[in-house]
Every structure is written in C-alpha cells, then in structure tokens.
Design goal:
This protein has seven helices and seven strands; from the N terminus they run E-H-E-H-E-H-E-H-E-E-H-H-E-H. It is of the alpha/beta class. It has one domain: Rossmann fold (3-Layer(aba) Sandwich). It is globular, with a radius of gyration of 18 Å. The structure holds zinc ion.
C-alpha cells in the first residue's frame, strides 16, 4: 500500500498533539495517511506499553489513519545511528509517501530532537540509489518524498505555514484524549507529568486558537519547513474565501 502522507513521532501521542487536526483534515479529504511511532513510550511515568498501544489504536481510528506502526526503538535513547536510519528509510521506501512529517528539530524531550534528525537523515538517504535496504523478503527501490515538514510539540517556532483545522479541532482533541493514561484525568492516581497537568490541555487549546487567529480562522496548526514554501497566487485569487 502506498501512502500520501507519512507522519513520524518519537512516542505514541506525539503525532496527535502536533498535528492531529491536519491528519484528520487530510484523511477526511481522501488522502491516505499513516503514522509510524519510533518507540512504544515505555519510559512514560503514567500507563504502560499495553495501554498505550490500545490508546494509539483508538486515536488512529478517530483520525482515520490507514496505517499505524511502531518501530519499537528504545524510548529515552533515540539517536541518529545507521541501524535506526535504515529502519526509517525502510518505512519511507515501503509506503512511498509524497509528504513526510517529523517533530521540529528542537524540543524539551531529547527523543523529539533525535527523531527529527533521524527522519531528516532518512528522507535524504531514501532517495539515494546506492543506499541499499533490500533484504531477502523485500526488494526496495529508492524513494524521495516531495517535501519534509515539521510539526510543533512543546517548544514553539516561527511557522512557515499554518493549516486551518477549525473543522477538525474536536477530532484532534478527541484523538489526544484517547491517550487516557497520559492526559488530565481527575480520577487518576498516577503521578502528575508535564502533559497530564490540566494546564497542558489548556495550552493545546489556546495554541490552536492562537495559530488559527493568525490566519483568520478558529483553529490552526503551525508547521516548519527548512525549504521555502511557495504560495500559488493564481489559486488563491480563484478561491472565494481568500
Ligand atoms: Zn513524545
């Protein structure tokens, strides 16, 4: 199966937090979206690997994903090494996405930084013919995605573009809260964390509202691109609502 969009996250729930609205928007418009989590989040303070797996399944269903996979790399010890690069390239060559999304290059969690560099490196080498990833089970051809974009997690950046998620904001929040063990739950007896604090939920809501307002919409998700982003003025002028 080929995918239109492949999103990489360091931990299950990263893709939902960073770009759940955009994923739901694209899936709802008929594009095939997949998410590959690099680790199972086994170092998380709250919940465990099994509950996290079930939660990811639920969130994937809410967002309309065609694929959710997990590379089961070590949580808390992600790094840019040949073995891991090859595993990410393997995914890119298998699903041949036009667009790849990764976490932004700087963040609070070191795994997010490593995941960002890992995916960037893999996207480049995926297009290199002499970088061989074939094995006895599968012959792989080189594949270079058209674009690599980065989504926002804890640390902010100056966006290169913002996607209007006004119609998909509810779905985003539902997909985030599918991770019941990770986020605010007044009945939970587990220790509080950075993201289980109700302030984090408020931050996510206000951030979506903030970036939505920047483009004159209710809710938005910001993205970064290392390459410049083209604006098609003709298409913009042909659209009714700007
Ligand atoms: Zn994470």
């Amino acid at each position: 199966m080929n995918l239109d969009i492949l999103v990489f996250g360091a931990h299950p729930d990263d893709a939902e937090i960073g770009m759940g609205g955009t994923i739901a928007l694209l899936a709802d418009n008929g594009f095939k979206v997949g998410v590959v989590d690099l680790t199972r989040g086994e170092m998380s303070t709250r919940g465990d690997v099994n509950t996290r797996k079930k939660e990811a399944k639920r969130a994937s269903k809410i967002l309309g994903l065609k694929l959710r996979d997990n590379l089961e790399l070590p949580d808390g010890r992600l790094e840019v090494v040949d073995e891991y690069i090859k595993m990410v390239i393997w995914q890119i060559r298998k699903y041949k996405p036009k667009l790849v999304f990764a976490p932004y290059k700087n963040d609070r969690h070191p795994d997010h930084i490593a995941a960002s560099n890992l995916v960037k490196t893999a996207v480049f080498h995926s297009g290199v013919g002499k970088y061989d990833t074939s094995d006895e089970n599968e012959q792989q051809e080189p594949h270079r995605p058209v674009k690599l974009y980065y989504y926002m997690q804890a640390f902010k950046f100056e966006p290169k573009f913002i996607v209007d998620i006004s119609n998909y904001f509810d779905k985003k929040m539902k997909s985030v809260f599918a991770y019941k063990t990770q986020f605010y739950n007044p009945r939970s007896k587990e220790p509080n964390t950075f993201i289980s604090d109700p302030k984090f939920t408020r931050y996510l809501e206000s951030r979506s509202g903030f970036y939505g307002f920047q483009i004159g919409k209710d809710y938005g998700e910001p993205f970064y691109s290392e390459e410049e982003v083209e604006l098609n003025l003709v298409e913009m002028l042909k659209r009714k609502n700007g």
